[in-house]
Specification:
heterotrimer; A alpha+beta (499); B mainly alpha (96); C alpha/beta (543); A: alpha+beta; nine-stranded mixed β-sheet; 15 helices; 39% helix; C: alpha/beta; eleven-stranded mixed β-sheet; 20 helices; 41% helix; 12% strand
């Protein structure tokens, strides 16, 4: 967390690849992982004479996201060219949005269920739609150093979301990103896969250092190439410390030096200054004459807002109230995504015990999903089957650990609850047999009886263990009850709870 | 002259053009002359005039999100000055 | 000398053999005086075949293009094959398109699948587009026989076709003079009767000005009328493809084929295309003609001014009313244009960087050059100012692949868009552009068409203005405003100077009023014979 000597100030730029079938301005596939240069056409590789036409779905997904981020949606938006030379940018310009983006001035609430920081509103400056560049790969083997260019990704729709510098710690930065990712998932606008580059983050960071008379701001550094949430958190920690040391050494303040760009080196866990650009970036933005403006009427915004569906923050609150589960449990469930929420709600409804359902999901289902590296949609036990099992546990017909065994069997065999119980050889042991078993155990264990009679009730656990060895189907809770009762009736007991 | 030689040098880097000494001199003079000519626009009062980037009043021209076959890799690379049958090749991209 | 080099390489020297083999006698056809419209009926009635017509055109090219230099490439074999297939379709009674069997020449700026498309630039010398421009598709669907690529100013930047990287094109009326530009090849090949129809593009006058200087008809359609898909961009918000022909009817015929909405061009207008080729013959009742008084000031050649006045009198004699119009911002057109067009061009031409297609410098030589420069540096700090190999590759490729005028405009546009200058130049120009459009809107409330000159002087001599870019830019004075405002314009022959050089009459109409524009032009043409005059320097041959 923030050190006492300074305050960390972070603003994030998130690039989200939108989930469209085709590119932003042409009909090429956006599929990840194809062979290099097999998903291009004259438009996206900028052949002379080719012209762009806007993908309507990309606009729709951008609006959906911006509205969910509480942004204002101006009626008029247009396309601009950002001019710069790079081999993965075949037209020599990127089609983006400059002075009139499709959305602005929104916010996202972040909070920490562990209570590390209070609920905080992170303001969004703007979100705009733009096309992605291709990929440059440095070819070490070529000796003299050639780069290889793959243009498959060129023209893929990206939503760039820029936050205000409202983030005050690396933990908050991470929290902002996970909440953003979660929201994008609920909106179904992006795969948010950082490995595949469908969610990319650049961070701007500096420090505010209080001195006697004034607050000193250190120069802002842009950190690029942070490819996981953990990397964001770590790079921000590293950078804060580095900037503080730098300030101590040089006294450099904001404005003394040009804005620096540093890259995060994941292996070394450090940021490194990137090579100076050839010239100060002068992108010569101007309206793209090949594209026409987009008008977004209020009715369209309203209709998209109506169709957003329930979003994470609202769901957390509702689950907590409707099902009386803890904020923590609601958070865990909601953070897993819409499908798990649906699973939970079905399970809670059918089993009649939402708290139990929540616990099972948190403790068992999530563990199983993680072990199998699958999502809830691939999980073979339906909420209906699991609800049957939970009902047995809830009514004491199965104890928790037997329940787990049954669930494991259901997962492994694909069987229903009854079948799984049967194949595990679990059967109800009737009361008479239980009484007889307990009677036998009590008689065989005078030491335990003595201990219990001396007030050490937990000693009866040994009898429960023995009972389960003799008959794994017995309900341990019931064994415990019966044994205690038998012991209490025996001579030497001080009280006789039965009467 | 409205443009200095160093202005022209700066712009030649932005425009990715290599200019020889003579060319720099000539362009400094010619561009200055042209810029002087176009500066006549400053005579006009354009207060409150909406800039006109397009002459046609078109908007919301979109296409459905559908895939269509594009170029084969052979076609895409066919005009490349240098390629390795998979990728375009250029002198090393340094920096990031 | 570059002139002629292309021609020998493209095979029409072999034409004489084809001529002897396939067409020993020739048919009785006057290529010079028969319009495209009449040629269509000749083809339709069986008086001649498309192969015969195509051969006649190729023969005319073979005879005169060594002098004129209109063509960068003549596609003898493919044109004859195409003509033969049209003839077969006709014989079989298959449905035929509106241009079936007619030879058409195309400016070397429209992409054609697998056919070199150079835009007059060294940069694209070996470039083979993998797709067809929409206009090319429409021509092919209409049954046109494309016979070759015509010369042009590099990337359509110029008013004389002298900026072609490949060859000069000469004015058939006086080979010492330029044909105008940038569509100089497309105008010259018509004036020299090599083809009945050609395609050009007009960004600031590049169809109308060469049409005027070569004594033919050229139409700049309203912005959005014709698809730009596959048109190699110079200035996207100004570029339009248009027809050139020897008569207004022929231009109407060709415009009707190429016009219309294209979903691949976001700036293409969804408006219906009228039947220009039919309605062009219908005179307009109560035509209102406007004369822009700002067009008749100093600088306009006297002979041109009087030719325009006489043309206006012809209209009056036809019952048209003539009105004085003021366009107070017309004089700012050139300044506005030479900001907007270079700005767009600087971005449109950024793609020519030697990475994905086009010319790339010799990288070995480039690396040696850098090495030598590095050794001259004394301090480490200076090294930071040295180009990286990649940047140097860009800069050398572009410097070597692009010509002087193109570089000049790229520099101008880059400067005008760069930090600190955007508002003063580009944004200001966009505002003046709106004022110019306002002038037009006001004018077209009062009149149907504006009449005036196309150029201030007739064709100038080759080399006369090459060292003075600004005077070359001022050539566009009367034409650029139509592009800036998106209105339609036509140039048609309206007389000759005393030295025998053609003079063009420009008519302009409101956007998407081409029908009216063509009808008004045809009315004038019906009363005059300027369009039937042919250059005096070569024999009238019958084949």
């Amino acid at each position: 967390m923030t050190s006492a000597e300074y305050e960390i100030v972070i603003g994030l730029e998130v690039h989200v690849q939108l989930k469209t079938a085709s590119k932003l301005f042409c009909s090429c596939s956006t599929e990840f992982g194809a062979e290099p240069n097999t998903q291009t056409c004259p438009v996206c590789i900028g052949l002379p004479g080719a012209l762009p036409v806007l993908n309507s779905h990309a606009m729709e997904l951008s609006l959906r996201t911006a509205i969910a981020l509480n942004c204002e949606i101006p009626r008029f938006t247009k396309w601009d060219r950002k001019n710069y030379y790079y081999p993965d940018l075949p037209k020599g310009y990127q089609v983006s949005q400059f002075d009139l983006p499709m959305s602005q001035r929104g916010w996202l609430m972040i909070s920490d269920p562990e209570g590390e920081f209070p609920e905080t509103k992170i303001r969004i400056i703007r979100a705009h739609l733009e096309e992605d560049a291709g990929k440059s790969m440095h070819d070490e083997e070529a000796g003299k150093g050639d780069s290889r260019i793959d243009l498959n990704r060129t023209g893929t729709p990206l939503l760039e979301i820029v936050s205000e510098p409202d983030i005050r710690s690396p933990e908050q930065a991470r929290s902002f990103l996970s909440e953003m990712k979660l929201l994008l998932g609920y909106l179904d606008v992006s795969d948010c896969n950082m490995q595949e580059g469908s969610l990319r983050v650049d961070a701007n960071i500096n420090l505010h250092i209080p001195q006697q008379q004034e607050m000193i701001a250190t120069p802002i550094v842009e950190v690029k190439n942070v490819n996981s949430f953990r990397a964001v958190e770590r790079s921000m920690h590293f950078e804060a410390e580095r900037q503080y040391r730098r300030w101590q050494e040089t006294g450099e303040r904001l404005g003394d030096v040009p804005k620096q760009t540093r890259g995060w080196d994941e292996n070394a866990q450090v940021t490194r200054a990137q090579r100076h650009k050839e010239e100060s970036s002068d992108y010569r933005y101007f309206p793209d004459p090949d594209l026409v403006p987009v008008i977004v009427p209020d009715e369209r915004v309203a209709s998209i807002r109506d169709q957003l569906g329930e979003l994470p923050a609202a769901i957390r609150e509702r689950l907590e109230q409707q099902y009386s589960i803890s904020a923590y449990t609601a958070d865990v469930i909601v953070n897993q995504g819409r499908l798990l929420v649906d699973y939970f709600e079905e399970l809670a409804g059918l089993s009649g015990n939402a708290v139990l359902a929540g616990n099972w999901i948190q403790q068992d289902i999530l563990r199983m999903l993680k072990e199998e590296e699958i999502t809830i949609s691939q999980f073979t036990v339906s909420a209906v089957s699991l609800a049957e099992l939970l009902t047995l546990v809830d009514t004491g017909q199965l104890d928790h650990s037997r329940g787990r065994e049954v669930l494991q069997a259901m997962v492994e065999s694909g069987e229903g609850v009854e079948q799984a119980i049967a194949s595990l050889g679990i059967e109800q042991v009737d009361e008479e047999a239980l009484d007889a078993l307990c009677q036998q155990l009590v008689e065989e264990s005078p030491a335990v009886v003595k201990d219990v009679q001396a007030g050490k009730q937990q000693a009866v656990g040994a009898l429960v263990g023995k009972a389960r060895k003799l008959n794994p189907n017995v309900n341990p809770g019931r064994i415990r009850e019966i044994c205690l009762e038998l012991i209490s009736r025996m001579p030497g007991s001080e009280q006789n709870p039965g009467d | 002259m409205p443009l200095s030689r160093s202005d022209v040098e700066r712009v030649s880097l932005l425009a990715r053009l290599q200019l020889g000494e003579e060319e720099l001199d000539r362009l400094t003079e010619q561009l200055s002359q042209i810029v002087q000519y176009v500066e006549q626009l400053s005579e006009l009062d354009t207060e409150g005039v909406e800039p006109m980037a397009h002459t046609l009043d078109l908007q919301d021209v979109v296409r459905p999100d559908e895939r269509r076959p594009g170029l084969s890799r052979e076609e895409a690379l066919a005009n490349a000055p240098r390629h390795d049958d998979e990728c375009y090749r250029v002198p090393a991209v340094l920096g990031d | 000398m570059p002139h002629g080099m292309m021609t020998s390489a493209t095979g029409f020297r072999r034409y004489s053999e084809i001529e002897r083999a396939t067409h020993p006698q020739g048919v009785d056809m006057d290529l010079e005086q028969t319009s495209a419209t009449d040629l269509l009926s000749e083809l339709g009635s069986g008086n001649c075949s498309s192969v015969e017509l195509t051969e006649a055109c190729l023969q005319q090219v073979a005879r005169h293009d060594d002098t004129i230099g209109a063509f960068l490439q003549v596609e003898t074999e493919s044109a004859l094959a195409r003509a033969a297939s049209i003839d077969q379709q006709r014989a079989a009674g298959d449905p035929l398109g509106p241009l079936a069997g007619l030879p058409v020449a195309v400016k070397d700026i429209l992409c054609r699948r697998g056919v070199p498309t150079t835009c007059g630039s060294r940069m694209l010398e070996n470039y083979l587009p993998p797709y067809n421009a929409t206009v090319i598709e429409r021509l092919e669907n209409a049954g046109a026989v494309i016979i070759g690529r015509t010369n042009m100013d590099e990337f359509a930047m110029g008013s004389s076709t002298e900026n072609s990287a490949y060859q000069l094109t000469r004015n058939p009326w006086d080979p010492e003079r330029i044909p105008g530009g940038s569509s100089g090849g497309s105008a010259a090949c018509l004036a020299a009767s090599m083809v009945p129809l050609s395609i050009g593009t007009d960004t600031g006058g590049s169809i109308r000005q060469p049409a005027a200087l070569c004594g033919v008809v050229g139409v700049k359609p309203s912005y959005g009328r014709v698809s730009r898909y596959g048109l190699i961009a110079y200035a996207s918000s100004l570029d339009q493809v248009g027809p050139l022909a020897r008569t207004v009817e022929d231009a109407a015929l060709l415009l009707e084929v190429i016009a219309g909405h294209d979903p691949r061009d976001s700036t293409s207008a969804p408006n219906e295309v009228p039947r220009y080729s039919t309605t062009v013959r219908e005179p307009l009742e109560g035509l209102r003609i406007g004369l822009v008084k700002e067009h008749f000031g100093e600088g306009l050649d006297n002979e041109i001014a009087s030719a325009i006045e006489q043309a206006v009198r012809v209209y009056e004699s036809l019952g048209a009313s003539v009105h004085d119009i003021s366009m107070p911002h017309a004089g700012y057109g050139v300044a506005t244009y030479y900001i907007i067009a270079p700005c767009e061009a600087s971005s449109n031409l950024a793609r020519y960087d030697g990475v994905h297609y086009g010319y790339r410098t010799d990288t070995e030589a480039m690396l040696k050059e850098l090495q030598a420069e590095r050794q001259l540096l004394s301090t480490q700090e200076d090294e930071g100012n040295l180009d990286s190999p990649l940047v140097r590759m860009y800069r050398r490729s572009r410097a070597e692949g692009l010509g002087a005028e193109v570089k000049r405009r790229i520099m101008l546009g880059t400067y005008a868009l760069s930090e600190g200058y955007y508002d003063a130049y580009y944004l200001k120009a966009l505002k003046v552009r709106r004022l110019i459009r306002g002038d037009y809107d006001a004018a077209f409330k009062q009149v149907d068409v504006l009449a005036g000159p196309v150029t201030s002087s007739p064709a100038f001599r080759c080399g006369e203005k090459t060292d003075d870019p600004l005077s070359m830019y001022l050539e566009d004075l009367y034409t650029v405003t139509a592009n800036l405002a998106g209105v339609a314009g036509i140039s048609l022959p309206c007389g000759f100077t005393s030295s025998g050089l053609p003079i063009g009459l420009q008519l302009q109409s409101a956007p998407f009023q081409e029908e009216r524009l063509l009808r008004a032009a045809a009315m004038y043409q019906a009363e005059t014979d300027w369009h039937t005059r042919r250059p005096p320097w070569h024999d009238i041959r019958r084949i």
